[in-house]
Structures are given as C-alpha cells and as structure tokens.
Amino acid sequence: MEPETICRVEMSGICKHFEGVQALNEVRLSVLPGEIHALVGENGAGKSTLIRILSGVLAADKGEVKIDGKPVHFSDPKAGILAGISVIYQEFALVQHLSVAENILLDEFRSKKIVNWKKMHGKAKQILEELGFGDIPVSAKASDLPVAYQQVVEICKALSRNASILVLDEPTAVMTNKEVEKLFGLLNGLRDKGVSIIYVSHRLDEVFRICDRITVLKDGQYVTTVDTADIDKNKLVSLMIGRDLSNFFPPRESDIGEVALEAKNISVGNAVRDISFNVREGEILGLFGLVGAGRTECVRAMLGIDKLKGGQVTFGGEAVRLTSAKDAYSRGIGFLPEDRKNQGVLLRRPIYQNITISCLKVLSTLGVIRKKREFAVVNKYIAEMAIKTATPLNNAESLSGGNQQKLAIAKILAADTKVLFLDEPTRGVDVGAKIEIFKIINELVSRKYAVVMISSEMAEIIGMCDRVVVIREGRDVAELGKDQLTELNIIQYAMGVQ
What is the CATH number of domain 9-243? Predict the structure, then answer.
C-alpha cells in the first residue's frame, strides 16, 4: 500500500471577519507538492483574504494552517517567506526607484553593507534569462518598465527566494500572449521540480489549460475542489456565480447618434504618431493593440493628463485643449484609468468621498458641502452600480476588486460626464463582476453616452464594441465595423500581417 501524500498546503476551518462582513466562513484548501492549483471565485468570494492568511499578512479568527503536514502560525509575512511561501499580488510590491536587479535580489541587497554590483547584475540576469525575459535590462529602474515587465520582475523576485509554495494573483493580467506562453513554460517547469503553485485567476481559459485541480469559493465559503479534467467552463461558472456563460456579453440594441468627440493626428513623444478616431453618442468604440502599441498613451495625452505633442481634440463641435483630468471632467469627459488601485480610487478614504470627490462644487453652498445632498448622490450611485458594501462610511479598500471598479465608474458618472474613456474596465475583475460592468456600460450607451473602451481581451472587444480602431506601434492601422470584428482580423492588423 502506497503511503498517503502529505499536502504541501492544508488550510481547514478558516474564518475571518471584517467590520460587519464575514469574509471567510469555514473555508478549506489543500494543495499537493508539484501541483498547479487554481483558486477561483467572484471578487468578494474570499480568495485574497485566504491567501493573506496563508502568507501571514492576516491572522485567521479561527482555523488551522499546515505546511508539509506541520501546523504553522505566521506572525507576519516575513515568517511566511522563511517557510517557503512567496506571494505575487495583483498590486505590485516593487520598489519603484530601485533597479530591476535590486528588486529581484532585494533580500540580498538589504542584508549587505558592501554590494558586488557585477555579481548581483549577473545573478539577476540569469534569473531573467531562465524565465525567458533576458531582454529586460537589469540596471533599469522598475518605474521605467512597462507594467507587463514589472510583473515579470515580481515573479523573478519570488523565484530568487527558492519558494516551495508560489502564489500568483492574476499573473497574466497585463501580459501579451507571447509573454503568457513563457510564463506557462516556467510554471510547468517549477511544477516538475515539486513546487506547489496556487494560481488565482479570472481567466478561465488559463485555468483549464495549466491547472491540475480547482478550488471554488463563493461568498466567503468553500464550494468544492475538482480535478480540472472532470469539469467544463459552464459548470465551473455555474459553481462560481450561479449562471452559465450564455449571457456573458449582454445583448444591446445600438442607436448610434452624432459624433460626440473626435481626435485628429494625436502625437505623444515618440510613442504615438498621428492617431485619429471619433466616437458617437450611443456607441462603444474599442481601441485595441498589443502591449506598448500606444493606446493608453494616446488617451492620457488627449485628456491633458500627459503632455500632448501634436493633434486636435474636438468635443461638442468645438476644438478643445484639455489641460488635466479635472479639466476634462468639467467639460463632461470622464476617464477610468487602468491602474485602479493607484489612480482609480482612494483606497484609504470612505466610499462616499470616492463618489462625490468629482462633483463637490455642485454639492456645496458657499463652500460648505450639503451632507443630505451628498448622500442622496452617494446612495443613488451605490444602488445603480450595485456596489456591495455594509455602509458608504467604510473605506474603499474594504471593497472587492469588482466593487472598487464600479466605485471608480460611479465617480466619473457623478461628475455628469457624457463621453467616457474606460481603460481596461474589467482588469482583475471576476466573471460575475465583468457581466455587471458590461451591463452598466450597455445601460449608459442606451442613454446616449459615448464610450471609448481600451481592452487587451479580444473576446471583450468583439463582444462589446460597435467599432474598433486597431493601433500598432503608435499609429491607427485599421477601423473595423461590427461585421469585421473577428479574432483573426483584429490580431492580423495588430501584428502587422494584414
């Protein structure tokens, strides 16, 4: 009789309570040595809380954690790291002013008074090359890297610690297909070496492709653990949110009106050259391109957030030169940035302040905010956006990722904007919250809002947009109508093979 395999990670009876919310209730998770184990569920299901308890960031109110069969009680994240647990969170933990090499070997760098830079750079380069990203310069500052490359540096930092348990929270959210392939190759190699990998992702195609087993959480409770081979996508979604994928992109009747905003020959530094497009009332216009194509740079410069080198923006039939996001808001143009945590919401401020910060002038009399008027606006948008919170007095950080994203959209709408630029509106958001956000966007479009949506997800672009402008290497290379929106068509233009 073969001896029973001891779980690398075993969590049982885990409970955690926050400010009137039961985040986890009798949750369990078991991960075997040499296994890639998916942890899935809607935002707010408890995935992040469970991972923070495993790594020592949070203490459970109740329950037991075992590593290699032995009970552990981590007092802080450092204790978790010493036990072989490395977590790469969705929000990067890089030291932005330090170099790539310093970030990868941060523990070594901190512990030495005299640093052998040549040796450190060589070691960091070796780790990058093993990952398949040897082209990332080890002397570059982390802040100068594209977001996708910052994610790679995070992974390298974890690997430098010789982790036996690697936790990845939405690791491919900002990666191209080529980069994802490299990552999967690495993860498969680590699995073969006996490393246990907990893979937290909303991208179900990836889950089915790379994971051995799947644990499902819903509303802070354990649902089930299944072998990936024994379940299909529809059944998994049903377990997560109680409905299948047939209504993933809600149907919408298009009633497209006049041009609301037009951009002509937009140029930004050396990254963007002569991009032109327009968006109409009641329309969703998609901007698609590979990482680094210049989509976000174009929009930020148009709206006055970054420096505009050349070009013209016409809004309401008049040429405008926007000087800041505040200026754009005042004219009725809203912007949802791709970096929700740092730019979309104020995490440590109350939910109600996040909503009304964009419209305080209309809520005030002689400089005094009228609280009754303010909370009428707050309650309206909490209801319309279906933001799940115990009270609007809680800080925004108490919300799940999907609800934070809805909060960021509510802030834009409260400013009475009519043209919306949404940059990766569903990044890091679970399946259920995605559907809710799609419904919100469709509702806005039905009310004659004009929406420009930047997205890296092909299915999202095809499923939601009326037209798509494809951007490659800082130029608009194609404008595709609804009947032209196929994956092959879009990617050929994006890659320059059309």
Answer: 3.40.50.300
